[in-house]
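Handoff note, outgoing to incoming analyst
You'll be picking up this chain. Sequence as last confirmed:
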Amino acid sequence: MATTLDKVDVVTVGAGWTGGIVAAEAAKAGLKVVSLERGRERGTEDFLRVHDEYRYAIRYELMQDLSKETITFRNRRDQRALPMRTMGSFLLGEGLGGAGTHWNGQTWRFLPYDFEIKTMSDQKYGANKLGPEYQLQDWGITYDELEPYYDKFEKTAGLSGEDTNPFWGKRSNPFPTPPMKKTPILKKFEKATQDMGYTPFMIPSANLSEAYTNPDGQTINACMYCGFCERFGCEYGAKTSPEITVIPTARETGNFEVRFHSNVVEVLHEGGKATGVRYVNWMSGEEFIQPAESVVLTSYVMNNAKLLMVSNIGEMYDPETGRGTLGRNYCYQILPGATGFFDEQFNTFMGAGSLGMAIDDYNGDNFDHSDLDFLHGSLLTMTQTGVRPIATNPVPPDTPSWGSEFKKASIENYTRVLSVGSEGASLPHRDNYLTLDPTYKDAYGVPLLQLTYNFTDQDRALHKFITEKAVEIMEEMGAKQTVGSNPISDYDIVPYQTTHNTGGTIMGADPATSVVNNYLQHWEMENLFVVGAGNFAHNGGYNPTGTVGALAYRCAEGVIKYSKEGGSLV
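Most recent structure output, in case you need it:
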């Protein structure tokens, strides 16, 4: 039998970036906040002198335990979905800080085009350029409306960057700290792209170029360029993460509590309002009910959607009819690019998660799509994130996959390979969605989330186009051999691609096509908020965290406003 606890003003499900931001802002406003985190507590001191690639990058020390909960996957509706047994295409974070602990730190703002993609594309190219199977829609908020929240997140993070990209939206303030170091590798990319007529710029980075104290009084240290960012926690406190920024801010108010090992299995509701959540302490097996005036779902994309589904909140999306919103518009990304083999050696083993340069000439609608059979695009980057020896063995394509020739080529090329990378936008398709699996359940008896997803003609056309551009850049950089990315066919749940999953709980201006409004308030339950990359109506050509942070600050404002006024906020 569940133990019912004392009621609080706000309960968040998860204590990562979104949960931490909502908790900090609400607690500063005087609200009593509890965050339920199913992982354990951790912080900078846990990562001191543990540059252990096998433990963190190969065996996923900081990730979700798939033996307790995973997802099932299929490409098409006529296939049987099977559980993902090991981490593959994407990595689900767990513990204090969530995926904000093991991220790379690239922190972008989506383009103004992204937020009004349906309106702008129809005006320029005519209605339904891609066909009726693609479910493009505006987000219910514009870039200009979201800009103050971007600004606030970047000041919290101390973001390092330079405002020299001619394509992105107007900024109200400069970056809080200067850009990172421009290494010889980046200078090589810079010269090549400038010679080609592009405008390269340093990637906005949450690995800070210098020590910084944010507006809440939290200090973030300067990056040491050790090359252990992605999949690792930062031992220097130099990669901005929730546990060194918003979580301490929330704790210092005295209005905040975070409970660990607490897995939320249901959102409780009655009479059209959320009443709290039910959770299990998986260490003791005890079950609790946490009543709250407002419930905020701040866990990962897939977990937010799953909680709404198992709690029977909202109308499930039906791909046959196109009706329903919950689970709709799941999107991912594509990774076109090119690899270059050089005679000269580079210090590729050094770097940082966000150390790099980019061009935006082929992102969003920054180029004309009139004669192209796709929309949107991708940034093109040269990053120096620190290649590690277990997971990195670049060899030319004609090299045997084992034996003495492979070993020789692997050693030769370890520091002689550079890559032009990209993150191609993913647009929503009728047949890509999330639902509950009818067969498989997690360790708590709750149905697993089912992912139905495949690459589309849009993806394949964009992948080919961007790969060709990446090859041109790599050849301009002087590679002795250039290899473009292989064409894509069906999506596979392995190998790793990106943890940039979006959709399923999308935002918008119309409850008929969205789950939440632009305050991330559920259309059907005014005291329930759902925030994260699941709110994206499509996925853009950037990493999602900057936009997730901005939406979290927008959501926090909504939670505080609701606590004072009640009712719908739009």
